[in-house]
Amino acid sequence: MQNPLTAKLEHYTAFSPDERTRLDQLLMGKRQTFPARSEIIADGEKVTEIHLVVSGLAARSKYLPDGGRQIMAFLVPGDLCDVEVFVLEAMDHSITAISETECALIPAKTIETLLTEMSGLTKGLWWSTMSDAAVLRERIIDHGRRGAKERLAHLFYEMLIRYTVIDQVTDNSFSFPVTQEELADATGLTPVHINRILQEMRSDGLIELRHRTLTVTDPDRLKQVARFESDYLHFKRAAERQDRHGKKAADLM
Amino acid sequence: MQNPLTAKLEHYTAFSPDERTRLDQLLMGKRQTFPARSEIIADGEKVTEIHLVVSGLAARSKYLPDGGRQIMAFLVPGDLCDVEVFVLEAMDHSITAISETECALIPAKTIETLLTEMSGLTKGLWWSTMSDAAVLRERIIDHGRRGAKERLAHLFYEMLIRYTVIDQVTDNSFSFPVTQEELADATGLTPVHINRILQEMRSDGLIELRHRTLTVTDPDRLKQVARFESDYLHFKRAAERQDRHGKKAADLM
DNA sequence: CGTTGACTTGACGGAAGTCAAAAGGTGTGG
DNA sequence: CCACACCTTTTGACTTCCGTCAAGTCAACG
Question: CA A186, A191, A193, A197 torsion: positive or negative?
Answer without folding.
Answer: positive
